[in-house]
Amino acid sequence: MITNKGKQKMRQKCSVPLCLKTVPEFLNFIYPPRCGICGKISENFLCVKCNKVLEGQAVFGIDKTKANLKSFENHLYIFKYEGIIRNMIINYKFNEKSYLYKTFVNFLLKNKKFFKILKSYDKIVPVPISKKRMKKRGYNQSKLIANELSKKLGIDLDLNNLLKVKDIIEQSKLDGRNREENIKNAYSLSTYAISKKTLENKKIILIDDVFTTGSTVEECAKTLKNANPKKIDVLTIAKD
Ligand SMILES: [Zn+2]
Predict the structure, then answer these.
(1) What pLDDT, on a 0 to 100 scale, did the predictor assign at position 14?
(2) Dihedral of the CA atoms 53, 54, 55, 61 (nearest 10)?
(3) Helix (H, G, I), strand (E, B), or coil: what is residue 66?
(4) How far is the C-alpha of 7 from the C-alpha of 13, rounded, in Å?
(5) Separation of 2 CA from ligand 1 center, angstroms?
(6) pLDDT (tens digit, 0 to 9) for every residue of the chain, 240 residues total?
(7) H helices of 140-209, where?
(8) Which residues contact 101 (CB under 8 A, 6 or more apart)?
(9) How many angstroms is it from 31 CA to the middle of ligand 1?
(10) Could you count the other beta carbons within 10 Å of the beta carbon of residue 75?
(11) How far does residue 46's CA lie from ligand 1's centre (Å)?
(12) pLDDT attached to residue 221
Protein backbone atom coordinates (compact mmCIF):
# COMPACT_ATOMS: atom_id res chain seq x y z
CA MET A 1 0.00 0.00 0.00
CA ILE A 2 1.31 3.48 -0.88
CA THR A 3 1.23 5.93 2.00
CA ASN A 4 0.20 9.56 1.63
CA LYS A 5 3.84 10.56 2.00
CA GLY A 6 4.76 8.16 -0.80
CA LYS A 7 2.07 9.59 -3.06
CA GLN A 8 3.35 13.09 -2.37
CA LYS A 9 6.88 12.03 -3.27
CA MET A 10 5.68 10.49 -6.53
CA ARG A 11 3.77 13.61 -7.41
CA GLN A 12 6.82 15.75 -6.78
CA LYS A 13 8.96 13.45 -8.93
CA CYS A 14 6.54 13.50 -11.86
CA SER A 15 5.15 16.99 -11.78
CA VAL A 16 8.38 18.98 -12.03
CA PRO A 17 9.73 17.78 -15.38
CA LEU A 18 6.25 17.72 -16.92
CA CYS A 19 5.68 21.24 -15.74
CA LEU A 20 8.96 22.48 -17.18
CA LYS A 21 8.26 20.76 -20.46
CA THR A 22 4.84 22.29 -20.94
CA VAL A 23 5.57 25.88 -19.87
CA PRO A 24 6.97 27.08 -23.22
CA GLU A 25 4.13 25.37 -25.11
CA PHE A 26 1.61 26.93 -22.79
CA LEU A 27 3.17 30.38 -23.25
CA ASN A 28 3.18 29.85 -27.01
CA PHE A 29 -0.52 29.12 -26.73
CA ILE A 30 -1.27 32.36 -24.86
CA TYR A 31 1.30 34.50 -26.69
CA PRO A 32 1.84 32.89 -30.09
CA PRO A 33 4.86 34.25 -32.01
CA ARG A 34 3.80 37.02 -34.35
CA CYS A 35 5.33 38.63 -37.42
CA GLY A 36 7.21 41.70 -36.14
CA ILE A 37 6.06 43.74 -39.11
CA CYS A 38 2.35 43.03 -39.63
CA GLY A 39 1.45 41.20 -36.40
CA LYS A 40 0.14 38.05 -38.09
CA ILE A 41 0.73 34.81 -36.14
CA SER A 42 3.93 33.40 -37.56
CA GLU A 43 6.40 30.86 -36.18
CA ASN A 44 9.58 32.69 -37.16
CA PHE A 45 8.41 36.20 -36.18
CA LEU A 46 8.19 36.93 -39.89
CA CYS A 47 5.24 35.95 -42.12
CA VAL A 48 5.59 34.80 -45.73
CA LYS A 49 4.27 38.08 -47.13
CA CYS A 50 6.57 40.33 -45.08
CA ASN A 51 9.51 38.01 -45.74
CA LYS A 52 9.00 38.67 -49.45
CA VAL A 53 9.01 42.42 -48.80
CA LEU A 54 12.29 42.16 -46.86
CA GLU A 55 13.81 39.95 -49.55
CA GLY A 56 13.04 42.68 -52.07
CA GLN A 57 14.97 45.17 -49.92
CA ALA A 58 17.92 43.02 -48.78
CA VAL A 59 21.39 43.57 -50.22
CA PHE A 60 23.56 41.47 -47.84
CA GLY A 61 26.54 43.70 -48.48
CA ILE A 62 30.15 43.33 -47.33
CA ASP A 63 32.36 46.43 -47.49
CA LYS A 64 36.08 46.51 -46.89
CA THR A 65 37.28 49.12 -44.42
CA LYS A 66 37.83 52.63 -45.73
CA ALA A 67 40.85 54.79 -44.99
CA ASN A 68 39.27 56.75 -42.15
CA LEU A 69 37.88 53.61 -40.49
CA LYS A 70 40.86 51.43 -39.85
CA SER A 71 40.13 49.63 -36.59
CA PHE A 72 37.99 46.89 -38.17
CA GLU A 73 38.29 44.88 -41.41
CA ASN A 74 34.84 44.32 -42.92
CA HIS A 75 31.41 45.83 -42.58
CA LEU A 76 28.50 43.43 -43.12
CA TYR A 77 24.97 44.78 -43.51
CA ILE A 78 21.59 43.44 -44.58
CA PHE A 79 19.80 46.49 -45.95
CA LYS A 80 20.28 50.01 -47.24
CA TYR A 81 18.91 52.50 -44.73
CA GLU A 82 15.94 53.76 -46.75
CA GLY A 83 12.17 53.43 -47.27
CA ILE A 84 10.35 50.77 -45.29
CA ILE A 85 13.62 49.58 -43.65
CA ARG A 86 14.37 53.07 -42.35
CA ASN A 87 10.88 53.27 -40.84
CA MET A 88 11.27 49.82 -39.28
CA ILE A 89 14.56 50.72 -37.66
CA ILE A 90 13.24 54.04 -36.34
CA ASN A 91 10.30 52.15 -34.83
CA TYR A 92 12.69 49.56 -33.43
CA LYS A 93 14.89 52.17 -31.80
CA PHE A 94 12.58 54.93 -30.74
CA ASN A 95 9.00 53.66 -30.72
CA GLU A 96 9.35 50.71 -28.37
CA LYS A 97 9.04 48.04 -31.06
CA SER A 98 11.88 46.18 -29.37
CA TYR A 99 10.43 42.81 -30.44
CA LEU A 100 11.58 43.46 -34.03
CA TYR A 101 15.03 42.07 -33.17
CA LYS A 102 13.67 38.52 -33.63
CA THR A 103 12.38 39.38 -37.08
CA PHE A 104 15.73 40.91 -38.11
CA VAL A 105 17.80 38.00 -36.80
CA ASN A 106 15.57 35.29 -38.27
CA PHE A 107 15.68 37.00 -41.64
CA LEU A 108 19.45 37.49 -41.44
CA LEU A 109 20.24 33.87 -40.60
CA LYS A 110 18.20 32.56 -43.50
CA ASN A 111 20.91 33.92 -45.77
CA LYS A 112 23.38 31.03 -46.21
CA LYS A 113 26.38 33.22 -47.01
CA PHE A 114 25.93 35.42 -43.93
CA PHE A 115 25.09 32.44 -41.72
CA LYS A 116 28.40 30.79 -42.66
CA ILE A 117 30.41 33.98 -42.14
CA LEU A 118 28.78 34.74 -38.79
CA LYS A 119 29.41 31.20 -37.55
CA SER A 120 33.15 31.84 -37.85
CA TYR A 121 33.43 34.40 -35.00
CA ASP A 122 34.41 33.65 -31.40
CA LYS A 123 32.74 36.62 -29.70
CA ILE A 124 29.70 38.77 -30.35
CA VAL A 125 29.97 42.28 -28.89
CA PRO A 126 27.08 44.78 -29.09
CA VAL A 127 27.75 48.53 -29.15
CA PRO A 128 26.96 49.51 -25.55
CA ILE A 129 24.70 52.42 -24.58
CA SER A 130 25.02 54.66 -21.52
CA LYS A 131 23.10 53.97 -18.31
CA LYS A 132 21.13 57.18 -18.85
CA ARG A 133 20.03 56.10 -22.36
CA MET A 134 19.24 52.61 -21.08
CA LYS A 135 17.00 54.06 -18.39
CA LYS A 136 15.19 56.23 -20.92
CA ARG A 137 14.71 53.60 -23.64
CA GLY A 138 14.49 50.51 -21.47
CA TYR A 139 16.57 48.38 -23.83
CA ASN A 140 19.75 48.39 -25.87
CA GLN A 141 18.67 47.67 -29.46
CA SER A 142 22.11 46.32 -30.47
CA LYS A 143 22.31 44.05 -27.43
CA LEU A 144 18.93 42.46 -28.25
CA ILE A 145 20.19 41.57 -31.73
CA ALA A 146 23.56 40.38 -30.40
CA ASN A 147 21.91 38.21 -27.76
CA GLU A 148 19.57 36.55 -30.26
CA LEU A 149 22.47 35.93 -32.66
CA SER A 150 24.51 34.44 -29.84
CA LYS A 151 21.70 32.03 -28.92
CA LYS A 152 21.03 30.99 -32.51
CA LEU A 153 24.68 30.61 -33.53
CA GLY A 154 26.03 29.25 -30.25
CA ILE A 155 28.68 31.99 -30.06
CA ASP A 156 29.75 33.75 -26.85
CA LEU A 157 27.95 37.02 -26.14
CA ASP A 158 30.43 39.40 -24.60
CA LEU A 159 28.95 42.19 -22.46
CA ASN A 160 31.65 42.69 -19.86
CA ASN A 161 34.50 44.13 -21.81
CA LEU A 162 33.40 47.07 -23.93
CA LEU A 163 31.89 49.82 -21.78
CA LYS A 164 30.29 53.15 -22.55
CA VAL A 165 31.88 55.60 -20.18
CA LYS A 166 30.71 58.96 -21.55
CA ASP A 167 27.14 60.12 -22.04
CA ILE A 168 27.03 61.79 -25.45
CA ILE A 169 24.56 63.70 -27.63
CA GLU A 170 22.62 61.23 -29.80
CA GLN A 171 24.72 60.67 -32.94
CA SER A 172 21.71 60.87 -35.26
CA LYS A 173 21.29 64.52 -34.25
CA LEU A 174 24.76 65.46 -35.53
CA ASP A 175 26.54 65.59 -38.88
CA GLY A 176 29.68 63.66 -39.87
CA ARG A 177 32.47 65.72 -38.39
CA ASN A 178 30.62 66.49 -35.16
CA ARG A 179 29.77 62.80 -34.77
CA GLU A 180 33.45 61.93 -34.75
CA GLU A 181 34.17 64.57 -32.12
CA ASN A 182 31.12 63.62 -30.06
CA ILE A 183 31.97 59.93 -29.84
CA LYS A 184 35.68 60.38 -29.05
CA ASN A 185 36.70 58.53 -25.86
CA ALA A 186 33.09 57.49 -25.20
CA TYR A 187 34.09 53.82 -24.78
CA SER A 188 36.53 52.04 -22.58
CA LEU A 189 37.82 48.53 -22.13
CA SER A 190 37.09 46.95 -18.75
CA THR A 191 39.97 45.96 -16.51
CA TYR A 192 38.42 42.47 -16.63
CA ALA A 193 39.13 42.23 -20.38
CA ILE A 194 42.75 43.14 -19.87
CA SER A 195 43.42 41.01 -16.81
CA LYS A 196 41.59 37.90 -18.03
CA LYS A 197 42.63 38.34 -21.67
CA THR A 198 39.16 37.20 -22.69
CA LEU A 199 39.35 38.82 -26.13
CA GLU A 200 42.96 38.05 -26.93
CA ASN A 201 43.38 36.33 -30.29
CA LYS A 202 39.59 36.12 -30.73
CA LYS A 203 37.56 36.89 -33.83
CA ILE A 204 35.02 39.55 -32.84
CA ILE A 205 31.85 40.63 -34.58
CA LEU A 206 30.67 44.02 -33.36
CA ILE A 207 26.92 44.66 -33.63
CA ASP A 208 25.11 47.96 -34.23
CA ASP A 209 21.75 48.86 -35.77
CA VAL A 210 22.67 51.46 -38.40
CA PHE A 211 25.97 52.40 -40.01
CA THR A 212 26.04 56.05 -41.07
CA THR A 213 29.52 57.60 -40.96
CA GLY A 214 30.92 54.59 -39.11
CA SER A 215 32.35 56.75 -36.32
CA THR A 216 30.55 54.83 -33.55
CA VAL A 217 31.76 51.37 -34.61
CA GLU A 218 35.21 52.78 -35.41
CA GLU A 219 35.51 54.16 -31.88
CA CYS A 220 34.29 50.85 -30.40
CA ALA A 221 36.67 48.80 -32.55
CA LYS A 222 39.56 51.12 -31.69
CA THR A 223 38.85 50.47 -28.00
CA LEU A 224 38.46 46.71 -28.49
CA LYS A 225 41.82 46.55 -30.27
CA ASN A 226 43.53 47.23 -26.94
CA ALA A 227 42.50 43.69 -25.93
CA ASN A 228 44.57 42.27 -28.83
CA PRO A 229 41.86 40.39 -30.73
CA LYS A 230 42.72 38.47 -33.90
CA LYS A 231 40.13 40.27 -36.01
CA ILE A 232 37.23 42.72 -35.68
CA ASP A 233 34.36 42.93 -38.17
CA VAL A 234 31.15 44.93 -37.94
CA LEU A 235 27.57 43.85 -38.57
CA THR A 236 24.69 46.30 -38.82
CA ILE A 237 21.08 45.86 -39.87
CA ALA A 238 21.37 48.73 -42.33
CA LYS A 239 23.83 51.05 -44.00
CA ASP A 240 23.03 54.70 -44.61
ZN1 LIG B 1 3.98 39.96 -41.67
Answers:
(1) 43
(2) 150
(3) coil
(4) 10
(5) 55
(6) 445 555 454 444 444 455 555 666 676 777 789 999 999 999 889 999 999 999 999 999 999 987 778 999 999 999 999 999 999 999 998 888 999 999 999 999 999 999 999 999 999 999 999 888 888 889 999 999 999 999 999 999 999 899 999 888 888 788 877 888 888 889 999 887 777 789 999 999 999 999 999 999 999 999 999 999 999 999 999 999
(7) 141-153, 176-183, 191-196
(8) 92, 141, 144, 145, 148
(9) 16
(10) 22
(11) 5
(12) 97
What are the distances in angstroms from CA 122 to CA 72, 127, 142, 184, 203?
A: 15, 16, 18, 27, 5
Ligand 1 centroid to Cα of residue 216, in Å, is 32
CA of 105 to the centre of ligand 1 (A): 15
**Cα(152) to centroid of ligand 1, in Å?**
21
Report how far ligand 1's centroid is from the alpha carbon of 240 (Å). Answer: 24
What distance in angstroms lies between residue 192's CA and the mean position of ligand 1's atoms? 43
**Hey, what CATH topology would domain 56-239 get?**
Rossmann fold (3.40.50)
- 35 CA from centroid of ligand 1 (Å): 5
Measured in Å, residue 133 CA sits from the centre of ligand 1 at 30
